[in-house]
Amino acid sequence: MPLIKRAVSPVDVSRVKIPPEVTNGELQYVANSTLANLIRQLSSISKHAEHIFGEIYLEAMKLDHKANTLEKRIMNLTEKVSKLDSTNEQATLGELQMRKAFKSSMLVDQHSLDRSTLPIALAEVYSQCDPPPNLDALNQFRDPGAPTALSLYTNPSFFFDLWRQEMLKVVYLIVYWKYIKRLRTDVYMSSLHNSRTTALSFPDEYQAPQVLGLQLHKTNQIQHFQVRGSCRNRNFRLKNVSICGFY
Question: Source organism's superkingdom (predicted)?
């Protein structure tokens, strides 16, 4: 819905209601009323022009203040650069500790859409609107801790509260994922530590491989015993041959 910021009044210049006591001079009455309404329109235009030039003056003052601040910063920076020693590439530790931490002096605009920052023309339009109904009288019938009844009808801070909830949700998710990542890292490091300690520990009594959780392959065991058996048979034959005198 379009919002009229500055409206010139009156809108209807010549549309006037002639009173019943005027019987002969209707044309003269309408002409006088039209002239009076034109004068009122000119006064309304002059008032709006004053407000417009006042806003332009305020914006110009802000720009002038920013330009002066920027000029001072440039002069300070130029003076510091001229005093620097080009031969000394590294600063000493004492000089670094003597330096003050940087702190910005720039003012950040906050509550740009607040009612106190309304222009004069919009403040006048807002004052002409109908006031909200007195719903605060129903707060005594609501549950404790519940929002006020008027906030359900009109709530200027609704969008700010919605934005705040979204920002808090993002911050909560960031903290949550950091906690999950740290927890996973701790679990992984503890598992590595436990695996190293179990690999280097020796039991006091003999335990079967199945008890220790070791699965041995049967084919590997069979091949291992077959190789050992063949080696023993060969050594036995060589010994017998040497005893019989063939060598």
Answer: Eukaryota
Backbone angles phi, psi at 125, to 5 degrees: -65, -40
| Beta-carbon count within 10 A of 37 CB | 18
Domain hosting residue 226, numbered range: 215-244
Task: Count how many domains the chain has.
Answer: 3
Whether the pTM exceeds 0.85: the reply is no
Q: Both ends of the chain: CA-CA distance in Å?
A: 119
Q: Do both 4 and 124 map to the same domain? A: yes
Closest CA to 54 of 126, 121, 125: 121
CA distance 51 to 44: 11
pLDDT digits (tens, 9 = 90+) for 2-49: 778 888 888 888 888 888 888 888 889 999 999 999 999 999 999 999
Same domain for 1 and 49, yes or no, is yes
Q: Is residue 133 part of a domain?
A: no
Residue 164 lies in a domain: no
- Residue of 81, 74, 73 lying closest to 104 (CA atoms): 73
Closest CA to 203 of 212, 194, 215: 212
Assigned domain for 88 exists: no
Nearest to 66 by CA among 117, 113, 111, 107: 107
Q: Which amino acid is present at 121?
A: A
Q: Are 56 and 123 contained in the same domain? A: yes
